[in-house]
Each structure stands twice: as C-alpha cells, then as structure tokens.
Amino acid sequence: MSTITGRLLRINLNDSSFKEEKIPRRHITRFISARGLGAKYLYDELTPGIDPLCPENKLMLLIGALGGTGLQGFSKWAVMSKSPLTGTIFRSISGGNFGVWMKHAGYDLIILEGKATAPIYIHIDTDGVHFLEATDLWGLEYRQLQTQLREKHGLHTESACIGPAGEKLVRYAVIHSGERTASRGGMGTVMGSKNLKAVSINVPIKKPAPFDPEAFKGLIKTQVSILKEHPRKQTMNTLGTPYITKIVNIMGILPTKNYQAGSIPTIEDLSGDKFFELKKSRAGCYACMTRCGGMREVTQGPLRGSQIDGPEYETIFAFGPLLGLTDPQFVIDANALCDAYGIDTISTGVCIAFACELFAKGIISSADTGGLELTWGNKEDVFSLIEQIGKRKGFGRLLGDGVKKAAEQMGDGTDAFAMHIKGLELPGYEPRGVKGYALSMATSNIGGSHMYGRPREEFSGQADPLVETGKGDLIARVQKEQALEDSLIACTFGNTGLDTAMYARLLFAATGIDDFGDTANLLKIGERIVCIERCFNVREGFGRKDDTLPERMRKEPLQQAGPATDQMVVNLEHLLDEYYQALGYTAEGIPGIERLQELDLPEAIEDMKTHPATDSLESPGRDGQP
Ligand code: SF4
C-alpha cells in the first residue's frame, strides 16, 4: 500500500485516445511526485525547440504523494508544461479540489498531448475517459462552466478549466479549480492551444491507503496539534497573505509605480486589517485547517454582486501600489475581473504598469492605447484595459503577449521598462531590497517567480537582505527545499511547523520507500529536480546570459524605500558565480558532468556534454575549485 498510485493517464487529443501507464519505480524514488515527476516526464518527452503553443507541447496535471490523505495543507495540485511566456520548463500550483479527485480516480499524473480539431472537454468517471464536444461551453467564464459541468455530470464533479482568455491564447491565462487558480506562466494558454476547455472528474471517493496507517495517523495528529497552537497559522487564518503588505512596505520592497519606488506612505489602506474588514467568510483548500483565504464582495464587472476568494498579497501589490493605487475595493474588483477572463493577476498588473510608465514618460499616448488615459491611479481605464487583455482586443491585444514580447514589438527602448525575468513578469518583492531573493529570481528556472525559493532568512533578520555576498549557498539550499516541497506538494502557507525531518517520516509512513526516510536523500531529490529543470532549459538555449535581472534593478537606485533606498544589485555576476559553484554548475550556468553523475541524472549527461555553450565539461566542484 502506498499513497502514491504509481499510475498515469495519457490522453491524446489528436485521435481521442487514452491509455493508463505504470510510473516506473525508479522515477518515483528519484523524483517522488508532482513537480519532480512533471520535470522528469517533460525532460524525456518534449522535443527541444518546439513552440509552446504547438500540439507537440504537453500539459501535465499532477498531485503530490501526500495529497488527499487528510494531512493538512498537502492537497494542492500542479500543472507543468513548456511556458508560452518564457519558453522554459514551467510549473504552476493551484488550490481547489481537482488534484484530490485525480487521486480518487487513481492517478498521480495526467498527461495531455496533441490538439483537438474542435473545442472539447474531457470527463473522467467510473466508465472511463470521455471526449465531449465543448462548442457550447467555449466563451464561458469559470463559474458558469463549473455549474454546467456539475449539472451534467453530478454535484461532486471537480474540474480544471480555462476561461475566455485561455481560448484566445492570452499568454498568461490561468487554469481554474473551484475558486483557485494555477496562475503563472500561461498554463491555461497551453490548454487553450489544445482546444481543451476542461478536464472534469466525478468518481467515488477513494482515499489513498498509507503503507503504515497507524504511524501515518499519528503523524497527522502531531501536525494538527502543532497547527492548533502556532501563531503563524493564526495569522494566516485571520488575515491571510494580505498581512504581507505592511512587512514589505517597512522593508522598502513593495513595488510601486512599475518598480520605480519601494514603499507608499498610505499602506494602512491596503493592510491586512483593512482586507480583514472586507472579509465576509473564511475560505481555503481541501483538507487545510489554516484556511488562509477569504470571501469578499465584488462591486463591478461580470462577477458584480457575488463574492470571490481573494485577493492574495500578490494581487494587492499588482492592482495597488504597482499602478499608483491604494483602493482595496478596486483590488478586489480587478481580481474578480481577471478571474472572470482567466488571466494571471501578477502578469496583468505588471503589463499595465509597464504601459502606465510609458504613458507617464510620453513614450506612448492615448493615440496608441485606443483612447485609454493610462495615468497613474486611473482606475476606470485600468479596469477597461484588464477587460481588453481578457478579450485580447484593442491595446490589450499587445499586452496579452506579456511584457517582454510587448516591449519587443514596440521597440524604441521600451524594454527598459519591461519588468520580467526570462519573460515572466516580476512578483511583489522588489529585488533591490532583498539581494538573496534577487539571486533566486534571477536563477529561477521558471523566470521571475517568488515561489522558486524564498530566503526566509532575509525576512526574519537572520540574513541581512541588503548584503550581496555569501548568498549563493543560501539560495541553492532554499531552491532545493522548495523543489522538495513542490514534489509533495506542501503548501507554503499551510506547512507551518513542518521540516524536512517531518517530511521524511511522513513519506516513509505513507509509501514504505526506505530512501524517503532519509532527509539527506530528500534534499538531494530537491537538487535533482532543480537540476533536471535547468538541463531542460539549457537544451532550449538558456544559460548564464538569461540568469539576470531587469536593467533597472542593476543600474537605477531604488527610490522611496526606507532602509532599501538607493539600493541596486551591483554585483549580480559575483552572486551568480557563488550560486553556480554551490550547485556544481559551470561558469555558464550549465550542470557539470560530475554533478550530474552524483545526482544520478544519466539522462541529461549527453545533452549537457554536447551543448554548444558548455564551456567546460568538468563540474567546478563543491568547494568551487575547478
Ligand atoms: S494555507 Fe491557504 S493556500 Fe495553503 S492549502 Fe491552506 S487554504 Fe490553501
């Protein structure tokens, strides 16, 4: 018995066929599940250089080894693919119930490949896999769609679905599960490119059976008792992620007016307490007593009069200070509008902030925007622009390609105002005020993400956030830890009080796999996942030149940022050297052969050896010496 089913479902949309496959045990022991397995299958199955929106790209839906077991905060699910925003490997994680329903159906992984000739959706039930026409569902927003799927297939139907923006190939379209989304990297765009509106599941509940049920039950009890008392859980339960706004404002890392400044004087308007006042009820994911979400009323747009689960901190920054705004109700309404179309709030906000700065500097005018006056703080026109992006119309058509591609199309030096890393719009943490975090974002294999390895030490005072040296080891470690957590999937906000030792005990009790009981081995698995993701990207032509930050972060002193005022990342090259040495990569950021052997990644050795940018076939070694 094991909580890992060891089975995957492969669905071919070209010819409406499907088959079940056994996941090789060696894949599981080397990559566990979720992000680890997704990275392995993408590495093996994607031909380098393909267009992310072509039928040859694949979309992987994944649930973690501990999902659906009753363990608190472990039932989120992941979607992975080659991203249409970045061209890199990508993983996005969502709440909602879909992943657990995958496990009830008996799958750790669903691989979607090919492209349907006309809009369809897939329904999975006890009779098997059904390919169903979706012409009449095309154009529906997620709630209308979920309602129709439940009416047709039963009240307990759970789905992963896209909104109108995914159909229209806005490059940062999301995938919904209930009220939650896999938001980043355009995973919904890949789904739309396959003419696939939804994957729905309605099967009887079948809880995974742990290898050692008594031990596993005992560990859940321990977790629950830790959570009951823990202050972090209390804060998350009451305020949710909006509590972050005041912390980042004090640190001077709250991105303001397209990352020109790092704080605002009126932060109380967007504080956790302010959003708590607007909270109507609690909300959260399957089997999570932290329940960090909150339902709030929408006052404009297509979801007006209803409530949404949100906003999270990242949406508050994106539709608040980043656009020169401090209106909490506007943040909620903008969040709801993005949800209705199915677009990522971070990417949407950063694209609009880019346009606002161009407008403020006179580089574009209302003649370019179709009449929109994109002055800082113009809520009405920002709202219209979100709608245009969702519909891929007017000026929104250009911004729907993401800020990197939009700047490339506009030319005239506009790329200086495009805030992204590898094409992924930056999150709500100003890199100039947290230098280790800046390194993590610069080296992230999915681009400018805040979720690829967060150095908590820079927020807790254990590490000086403004110091630029000595951060390579720290970032290598937090990226490995994040990869391990994503391979389970342990929610960053719901895993309070747990550490690698506890993951080892849980995994062994759940699966009976001896190697999982060894914490050093688990961290090695984390490193193996980061490494195979890097190998995927190297094969696509990525390397040191891409591990960078926007020029603004390297050359413009940060303004109005409290302790981070006048900061820049002046020594990124040194930080990169430290990071590559910590992971056994060459000076070009390519995994060294020796390290690939140590990590038991034979599948990548030939690719890395023959890569033209490989400057040395030897790993520099763990001590940094060649
Ligand atoms: S802490 Fe929040 S995001 Fe994480 S699993 Fe719980 S409800 Fe979901």
Can you put this structure into words, describing what you see?
By secondary structure, this protein is α+β, with helices and mostly antiparallel strands. The chain has three domains: 7-201, Aldehyde Ferredoxin Oxidoreductase,  A, domain 1 (4-Layer Sandwich), CATH 3.60.9.10; 245-425, Orthogonal Bundle (Aldehyde Ferredoxin Oxidoreductase Protein, subunit A, domain 2), CATH 1.10.569; 431-498 and 530-610, Orthogonal Bundle (Aldehyde Ferredoxin Oxidoreductase Protein, subunit A, domain 3), CATH 1.10.599. Helix content is 39%, strand content 12%. It is built from 25 helices and 17 strands. Helix 7 (213-229) packs antiparallel against helix 20. The longest helix has 21 residues, at 519-539. Residues 616-626 have low confidence and may be disordered. The chain binds iron/sulfur cluster. Iron/sulfur cluster is lined by residues 73, 76, 95, 236, 284-285, 288, 290-293, 491, 493-494.
Secondary-structure map:
Layout: E1 7-12, E2 17-22, H1 25-31, H2 35-45, E3 58-63, E4 77-82, E5 89-94, H3 98-105, E6 109-113, E7 120-125, E8 128-133, H4 142-153, E9 158-161, H5 164-167, E10 175-177, E11 180-182, H6 187-193, E12 196-201, H7 213-229, H8 231-238, H9 244-251, H10 272-277, E13 281-283, E14 293-297, E15 307-309, H11 313-318, H12 328-341, H13 345-360, H14 379-391, H15 394-399, H16 403-410, E16 420-421, E17 424-425, H17 435-443, H18 457-460, H19 472-486, H20 500-511, H21 519-539, H22 551-555, H23 572-583, H24 593-598, H25 602-610
Parallel strand pairs: 1-6, 7-12
Antiparallel strand pairs: 1-2, 3-4, 3-6, 4-5, 7-8, 9-12, 10-11, 13-14, 14-15, 16-17
The chain binds iron/sulfur cluster.
